[in-house]
Amino acid sequence: MFPISLRIRSDSLPETVIHDVLSNSRRKNALRELRTRGGAVSVRELSEAIAADETGEWPAPRCVRESVYASLHQTHLPRLHDLGVVEYDRTRKEVRACRGARDVERYMTVVAGYGFTWTELYQLLGVVTLCVVLAAQLGAPVVGAVDPLLWTSGALATFAVVTVAQLWAAYRLSMPLSR
Known about the structure:
Distance between the termini: 51 Å
Shape: elongated
Number of strands: 5
Order of helices and strands: HHEHHEEHEEHH
CATH architecture of the largest domain: Orthogonal Bundle
Radius of gyration: 22 Å
Protein backbone atom coordinates (compact mmCIF):
# COMPACT_ATOMS: atom_id res chain seq x y z
CA MET A 1 0.00 0.00 0.00
CA PHE A 2 2.75 2.49 0.96
CA PRO A 3 5.82 2.73 -1.30
CA ILE A 4 7.93 3.56 1.75
CA SER A 5 8.06 1.01 4.54
CA LEU A 6 7.08 2.45 7.88
CA ARG A 7 9.07 1.04 10.78
CA ILE A 8 9.17 1.89 14.42
CA ARG A 9 12.69 2.30 15.72
CA SER A 10 13.80 -0.83 17.49
CA ASP A 11 16.60 0.97 19.32
CA SER A 12 14.38 3.37 21.27
CA LEU A 13 14.81 3.53 25.03
CA PRO A 14 12.47 1.44 27.19
CA GLU A 15 9.93 3.41 29.24
CA THR A 16 11.48 2.26 32.53
CA VAL A 17 14.82 3.77 31.52
CA ILE A 18 13.16 7.01 30.42
CA HIS A 19 11.30 7.29 33.73
CA ASP A 20 14.56 6.64 35.57
CA VAL A 21 16.29 9.39 33.57
CA LEU A 22 13.48 11.84 34.31
CA SER A 23 13.23 10.90 38.00
CA ASN A 24 16.18 13.18 38.77
CA SER A 25 15.63 16.93 38.44
CA ARG A 26 19.25 17.65 37.48
CA ARG A 27 19.16 15.15 34.62
CA LYS A 28 15.81 16.55 33.50
CA ASN A 29 17.09 20.15 33.69
CA ALA A 30 20.28 19.18 31.84
CA LEU A 31 18.26 17.69 28.97
CA ARG A 32 15.94 20.71 28.87
CA GLU A 33 18.94 23.06 28.76
CA LEU A 34 20.63 21.02 26.01
CA ARG A 35 17.43 21.10 23.95
CA THR A 36 17.15 24.88 24.41
CA ARG A 37 20.76 25.63 23.49
CA GLY A 38 21.31 23.00 20.80
CA GLY A 39 24.78 21.79 19.83
CA ALA A 40 27.68 21.21 22.21
CA VAL A 41 27.54 22.85 25.64
CA SER A 42 30.32 22.96 28.20
CA VAL A 43 29.66 21.29 31.53
CA ARG A 44 30.49 24.62 33.20
CA GLU A 45 27.73 26.45 31.24
CA LEU A 46 25.30 23.62 31.89
CA SER A 47 26.02 23.57 35.62
CA GLU A 48 25.69 27.37 35.89
CA ALA A 49 22.29 27.31 34.17
CA ILE A 50 21.01 24.43 36.32
CA ALA A 51 22.34 26.02 39.54
CA ALA A 52 20.60 29.28 38.63
CA ASP A 53 17.38 27.37 37.97
CA GLU A 54 17.62 25.57 41.32
CA THR A 55 18.34 28.69 43.36
CA GLY A 56 16.47 31.32 41.36
CA GLU A 57 19.59 33.52 41.46
CA TRP A 58 21.90 34.58 38.65
CA PRO A 59 24.65 33.84 39.14
CA ALA A 60 23.91 31.11 41.63
CA PRO A 61 26.08 30.90 44.74
CA ARG A 62 29.47 29.34 44.04
CA CYS A 63 28.93 26.37 46.35
CA VAL A 64 25.73 25.43 44.47
CA ARG A 65 27.42 25.80 41.07
CA GLU A 66 30.28 23.56 42.24
CA SER A 67 27.85 20.98 43.63
CA VAL A 68 25.89 20.87 40.38
CA TYR A 69 29.09 20.69 38.33
CA ALA A 70 30.44 17.77 40.38
CA SER A 71 27.19 15.80 40.26
CA LEU A 72 26.85 16.33 36.51
CA HIS A 73 30.46 15.44 35.75
CA GLN A 74 30.70 12.43 38.07
CA THR A 75 27.21 10.95 37.97
CA HIS A 76 24.52 12.29 35.69
CA LEU A 77 26.32 12.94 32.40
CA PRO A 78 28.21 9.61 32.40
CA ARG A 79 24.91 7.82 33.09
CA LEU A 80 23.13 9.67 30.28
CA HIS A 81 26.09 8.94 28.00
CA ASP A 82 25.96 5.21 28.81
CA LEU A 83 22.23 5.18 28.01
CA GLY A 84 22.80 6.89 24.65
CA VAL A 85 20.89 10.03 25.59
CA VAL A 86 23.87 12.41 25.38
CA GLU A 87 27.38 12.39 23.99
CA TYR A 88 29.69 13.36 26.83
CA ASP A 89 33.35 14.12 26.14
CA ARG A 90 34.97 13.90 29.58
CA THR A 91 38.31 15.29 28.40
CA ARG A 92 36.85 18.37 26.68
CA LYS A 93 34.06 18.57 29.26
CA GLU A 94 31.45 19.07 26.55
CA VAL A 95 28.05 17.49 26.19
CA ARG A 96 25.48 17.37 23.40
CA ALA A 97 22.12 15.65 23.03
CA CYS A 98 22.03 12.61 20.74
CA ARG A 99 19.42 10.23 19.36
CA GLY A 100 18.20 8.86 22.70
CA ALA A 101 17.33 12.39 23.83
CA ARG A 102 14.39 12.35 21.41
CA ASP A 103 12.90 9.34 23.21
CA VAL A 104 13.20 11.13 26.55
CA GLU A 105 11.94 14.43 25.12
CA ARG A 106 8.60 12.86 24.14
CA TYR A 107 8.00 12.29 27.86
CA MET A 108 8.99 15.86 28.70
CA THR A 109 6.47 17.45 26.30
CA VAL A 110 2.77 17.79 26.82
CA VAL A 111 0.86 15.49 24.50
CA ALA A 112 -2.25 16.87 22.81
CA GLY A 113 -4.00 13.54 22.31
CA TYR A 114 -3.69 10.46 20.18
CA GLY A 115 0.05 10.42 20.99
CA PHE A 116 0.85 13.72 19.21
CA THR A 117 2.63 16.63 20.86
CA TRP A 118 1.10 20.05 20.28
CA THR A 119 4.02 20.89 17.98
CA GLU A 120 3.42 17.79 15.88
CA LEU A 121 -0.30 18.59 15.69
CA TYR A 122 0.38 22.12 14.43
CA GLN A 123 2.90 20.79 11.90
CA LEU A 124 0.40 18.22 10.65
CA LEU A 125 -2.31 20.87 10.31
CA GLY A 126 0.09 23.13 8.41
CA VAL A 127 1.10 20.43 5.94
CA VAL A 128 -2.48 19.26 5.37
CA THR A 129 -3.63 22.85 4.89
CA LEU A 130 -0.86 23.53 2.40
CA CYS A 131 -1.72 20.41 0.39
CA VAL A 132 -5.47 21.10 0.37
CA VAL A 133 -5.13 24.78 -0.60
CA LEU A 134 -2.58 23.91 -3.29
CA ALA A 135 -4.86 21.16 -4.64
CA ALA A 136 -7.77 23.64 -4.69
CA GLN A 137 -5.63 26.19 -6.55
CA LEU A 138 -4.67 23.57 -9.13
CA GLY A 139 -8.29 22.51 -9.59
CA ALA A 140 -7.97 18.97 -8.25
CA PRO A 141 -11.19 16.92 -8.38
CA VAL A 142 -13.53 17.45 -5.42
CA VAL A 143 -11.12 19.78 -3.56
CA GLY A 144 -10.93 22.18 -6.51
CA ALA A 145 -14.70 22.61 -6.47
CA VAL A 146 -14.35 24.72 -3.32
CA ASP A 147 -12.76 28.17 -3.44
CA PRO A 148 -9.18 28.15 -2.03
CA LEU A 149 -10.11 31.18 0.11
CA LEU A 150 -12.77 29.05 1.82
CA TRP A 151 -10.24 26.26 2.47
CA THR A 152 -7.79 28.82 3.87
CA SER A 153 -10.47 30.33 6.11
CA GLY A 154 -11.44 26.87 7.35
CA ALA A 155 -7.78 26.07 8.09
CA LEU A 156 -7.34 29.31 10.03
CA ALA A 157 -10.47 28.53 12.02
CA THR A 158 -9.09 25.05 12.75
CA PHE A 159 -5.81 26.56 13.94
CA ALA A 160 -7.79 28.91 16.19
CA VAL A 161 -9.80 26.02 17.67
CA VAL A 162 -6.64 23.97 18.29
CA THR A 163 -4.93 26.98 19.90
CA VAL A 164 -7.91 27.51 22.23
CA ALA A 165 -7.85 23.78 23.10
CA GLN A 166 -4.12 24.00 23.89
CA LEU A 167 -4.62 27.08 26.07
CA TRP A 168 -7.51 25.38 27.86
CA ALA A 169 -5.43 22.24 28.47
CA ALA A 170 -2.56 24.35 29.83
CA TYR A 171 -4.98 26.24 32.08
CA ARG A 172 -6.44 23.00 33.44
CA LEU A 173 -2.94 21.62 34.12
CA SER A 174 -2.00 24.78 36.02
CA MET A 175 -5.05 24.56 38.32
CA PRO A 176 -4.46 22.94 41.72
CA LEU A 177 -6.09 19.58 42.24
CA SER A 178 -9.24 19.74 44.35
CA ARG A 179 -9.84 17.15 47.02
